[in-house]
Amino acid sequence: MKVKRALISVSDKTNLVEFARGLSELGVEIVSTGGTAKALREAGVPVIYISEVTGFPEILGGRVKTLHPKVHGGILALRSEEHLNQLAEHNITPIDLVVVNLYPFRQTIARPGVTLTEAIENIDIGGPTMVRAAAKNHAYVGIVVNPNSYEQVLRTLQDKGELPEQLRLELAREAFAHTASYDTAITNYLSRVTSGEEELQPELNISLVKAQDLRYGENPHQKAAFYRDSTITGPCVANARQLHGKELSYNNILDANSALELVREFSDTSVVIIKHNNPCGTATGSTLAEAYNKALEADPVSAFGGIVAANRVIDAATAEEMAKIFLEAIIAPDFTDEALAILTKKANLRILKTGDLSEQTADIMEVRKVNGGLLVQQMDRIVANVEELKVVTETKPSPEELKEMLFAMTVVKHVKSNAIVLAKDGQIVGVGAGQMNRVGSAKIAYEQAGEKAKGAILASDAFFPFRDTVDEAARSGIKAIIQPGGSIRDEESIQACNQHGIAMVFTGIRHFKH
Ligand SMILES: NC(=O)c1ncn([C@@H]2O[C@H](COP(=O)(O)O)[C@@H](O)[C@H]2O)c1NC=O
Predict the structure, then answer these.
(1) Are 34 and 41 in contact (CB under 8 A)?
(2) Average pLDDT for residues 225-250, to the nearest whole number?
(3) CA 89/CA 86 separation, integer angstroms
(4) pLDDT tens digit string along 308-345?
(5) Which family is this sequence assigned to (predicted)?
(6) What residues contact 334, with CB distance under 8 A and at least 6 apart?
(7) 101 CA closest ligand 1 atom index
(8) φ/ψ of residue 295, rounded to 5
(9) Which residue has the CA at smallest separation from atom 5 of ligand 1?
(10) With a 6 A CB cut-off, is 476 part of the ligand 1 pocket?
(11) At 222, is the secondary structure helix, strand, or coil?
(12) Annotated catalytic, 136?
């Protein structure tokens, strides 16, 4: 298909002039709308105003400019005798190439204080109509929605004198993805306006762009890719910048996310080490190096090959410590030059910089796939605060113990259920994760903690159905327990605590993580 006439109507005028000039030099006739035509004329590229084609002025402040049979007939006509005869009858010239990008709706709604009227005015109507028409008729028409494609399209026309079918098909796919994504942005914005940020809508529209292909998924036989939500701003794993190391794997991204989401919960200087999506070490310290060493000490066996997250800039002293064992990745707000010099000696170590973690991300919902559907829920962002804790035992915890309890409870929230966490001196000393009964999780945590269980705090993600967890805690030397409460047998657990002299507090908040 020779390209004789192109219609260009773009809001984003990046590389417009170079592209149009190239087309013009190939003898392509260019038709354009107001602002686009003006930019081209000023650059000396020959252009026909759209109103000369339609015989009708642009009206309603630009709401109607290309919505005309002279335009859509030219785009949608099959190059069959019947259609070409009809075009001739109505004096319509075929359009072989459509270059359109849409009103900047996403940028408009991202502006602070934008009004509904401004947003609505930035919903493009004529643009998507042309894009869809050209994409439908890709057998004869090329559709370009992305300035990044200009170079390839121009080079192909220069080399081959036409756009091959495969390229037209690929451009059509991109065009429909573009309008679908545009409509998703509009739908999601109107949903927010009508029913608020956290409302679960009657339909779920997701439009994400592939950030990278991954070598494989959880296992080498599973294909995988990472898709990024461009509407989510702020520091998070998807927005982190990789400064060094091997390409991130599927499991790395999953674990780095878990590590970061836990470490950002703490205001004290903290480090988290994740293995297989569970924290095997978490600690606070007066320095980051101290926090790291405490986190590592909790379970050095599991920490080998782990993913580390910190909530402070990684300094040289911490980097020296981190460089002593094999780690898969480190994610942190930033790294000093000295720290980077130390860590980059390890060729494979992935180093990820998030930027300041005090800024929250805009992401508030969590999505999980089941066969045939998606489960959507708010993220578990709550942690009990001291004032809300209910002391239920005769033994009352000290303020230091309460602080330690909340530290342990924060970690428990990030451990797969049934979850038991033991904490002592700002360090997790035992983690029991993902067992099918609570006693089983507790046993694993005690075993890991060994002697350190004595005088530690026990945190549980859900209530105790029986007093057995308390009795076992007493045997291991636990001095205080934090749990949601709410079992019909709470009284039995409280009695058991009173018998053993253990302090216990209820948070009223369950933290299952399946
Ligand atoms: N109303 C129409 O007929 C119409 N035709 C093209 N547009 C859009 O107008 C923009 C280009 O306008 P200009 O060339 O005036 O800068 C493009 O984003 C294009 O998608 C239209 N605008 C909105 O619907």
Answers:
(1) no
(2) 94
(3) 5
(4) 999 999 999 999 999 999 999 999 999 999 999 999 99
(5) Belongs to the PurH family.
(6) 313, 314, 353, 355
(7) 18
(8) -65, -40
(9) 126
(10) no
(11) coil
(12) yes
Residue 350 in tokens:
């992935």
Ligand 1 pocket test: which of 7, 8, 9 has the largest number of ligand atoms within 8 Å of its C-beta?
A: 9
Q: Which amino acid is at 7?
A: L
Alpha carbon of residue 357 to chain centroid = 15
Query: In angstroms, what is the span from residue 125 Cα to ligand 1's centroid?
Result: 8
CB-side neighbour CA atoms (13 Å) of 512: 5
CA distance 285 to 280: 17
One of 4, 13, 83, 136 is an active-site residue; which one?
Answer: 136
Sequence-separated (6 or more) residues with CB below 8 Å from residue 206 = 184, 367
pLDDT digits 0-9 by tens, 29-50: 999 999 999 999 999 999 999 9
* 10 CA to centre of ligand 1 in angstroms: 7
Nearest alpha carbon, ligand 1 atom 16: 35
Alpha-carbon gap, residue 60 to 429, rounded angstroms: 69
Is residue 276 part of the annotated active site? The answer reads yes
Nearest-atom index, ligand 1, CA of 128: 20
- Please report the atom of ligand 1 found closest to the CA of residue 38: 14
Q: Where on the phi/psi map is residue 244: left (φ > 0), alpha (ψ -120 to 50), or beta?
A: beta
Q: Is 65 in the pocket of ligand 1 (CB under 6 A)?
A: yes
Half-sphere exposure of 150 (CA within 13 A, CB side): 21
Active-site option among 4, 13, 276, 443: 276
Taking the centre of ligand 1 as the mean of its atom positions, its distance from the CA of residue 45, in whole angstroms, is 19
Q: How far is the CA of 133 from the centre of ligand 1 (A)?
A: 15
In DSSP terms, 5 is beta-bridged to: 29
The pLDDT of residue 363 is 84
CB atoms within 10 A of CB 44: 10
In sequence order, the 6+-apart residues with CB closer than 8 A to the CB of 159 are none
Helices (H), 26-161: 34-42, 50-54, 69-76, 81-89, 105-110, 116-121, 126-136, 150-160
Highest mean pLDDT among 1-5, 88-92, 207-211: 88-92
Tokens of 105: 């709706």
Q: Whose CA is nearest to atom 20 of ligand 1?
A: 127
pTM of the model: 0.90
Over 80: is that where the pLDDT of 1 sits? no
The protein residue whose alpha carbon is closest to atom 8 in ligand 1 is 127
Task: Decide: 56 in ligand 1 pocket, CB within 6 A.
Answer: no
Q: In what order do the strands lie in the sheet with 29-32?
A: 48-49, 29-32, 5-10, 97-101, 142-144
Taking only Cα atoms into account, the Rg of the chain, rounded to an integer number of angstroms, comes to 30
Is 298 in contact with 318 (CB distance < 8 Å)? no
Write out pLDDT tens, residues 417-455.
999 999 999 999 999 999 999 999 999 999 999 999 999
Distance from residue 402's CA to the centre of ligand 1 (Å): 61
194 pLDDT band (50/70/90 cuts)?
Answer: confident
